[in-house]
Amino acid sequence: MNKHTKFIMSPITSILQEVAYAHAGIGNGIETYPLSEYIMQSVFLRMTGFQEQKMKCICWDVATNDYKYRYEKFGKGKMGECSHYDEKSEIYKDLIKQIKKHRLSFDVSIDLGKNKVKTDTFDFIKNTFSTSNLSACDQRNLREFIKEPNILDTGQFAAGNTLLQTSLHKKYTQMYEHRNRCAHNTQSYQENLPTLKTLVDADYKYDNYFVRFAILILLDNIFMELYNIYVEVVEENFV
After folding, report:
1. Distance CA 225, CA 57 (A)
2. Terminal C-alpha separation, the chain
3. Radius of gyration (C-alpha) of the chain in whole angstroms
4. How far is CA 217 from CA 82, 203, 211, 235, in A?
5. Is 54 helix (H, G, I), strand (E, B) or coil?
6. How many angstroms separate the CA atoms of 165 and 215, rounded?
7. At residue 46, does pLDDT exceed 90?
């Protein structure tokens, strides 16, 4: 197991676990509210950065084993920061293509274990926030998230060559927009209050940290599962 593999198989959930432990000594009274947005925003940015680096590591590791892929990805093309959905989608398709080179029968919709991916993601958010004082930051949105386990419907992700279907893709877009607001500090000089049109949108209720974390964890679980299968089929090929 090389350095890239160790990092790729390190779950993004470790960052949320760390902040839950760190936040435990603060308490959950009204004095914690001024800190809540700062803490949630900080851990959110750490998670997005973590995932972007993991996407790059996957590409670098695949390029080590496939010289044609190396040329197409790094020679002919230009690799971005891997933060945008389209970049993640391309890496997702790259992994599927690499797996099928060694295992023709591979079907991501069946072999990925989507029910486990969904359950692990939802249960982590539910258990982590329900049992820590982080829940005091936004109890209403947490309750709504817990009431909707199908927010991560298995039909909405890893469907053939499509990473995220319409509903989850829209939630990713909401998450990505918030990532940009935080990363570029636009809230300090722009008025980012939602418009009335945004407020009446049925999906506005999903624009919160619990959904954002869930999207990031879901993607992380998908890529870890795919990468694990990729390593397995490559090792089989070299035996």
Report:
1. 15
2. 16
3. 19
4. 16, 20, 10, 27
5. helix
6. 12
7. yes
**Residue 215 contacts residue 151 (beta carbons within 8 Å):** no
Matching residue, tokens 């959904």 = 211
Distance of CA 219 to the CA centre of its chain: 4
Contacts of 79 (CB under 8 A, 6+ apart): 56, 59, 73
Q: Is the dihedral of CA 10, 12, 17, 18 positive or negative?
A: positive
Residue 136: Cβ within 10 Å count: 18
15 contacts 61 by C-beta, under 8 angstroms: no
The counts of H helices and E strands in the chain are: 11, 2
Q: What is the mean pLDDT of residues 50-66?
A: 94
Neighbours of 239 (CB within 10 A): 4
Tell me the average pLDDT across 179-200: 66
Q: What is the mean pLDDT of residues 184-191?
A: 60
**Ordered alpha helix ranges (H), 104-208:** 108-111, 114-130, 139-146, 166-183, 196-200
Residue 19 exposure: Cα atoms within 13 Å on the Cβ side = 23
Q: What's the pLDDT tens digit per position in 124-169?
A: 999 988 877 777 667 788 888 888 888 899 999 999 999 999 999 9
Q: 41 exposed, middle or buried (CB, 10 Å; 0-12, 13-18, 19+)?
A: middle
- 53 contacts 3 by C-beta, under 8 angstroms: no
Q: What is the pTM of this model?
A: 0.90
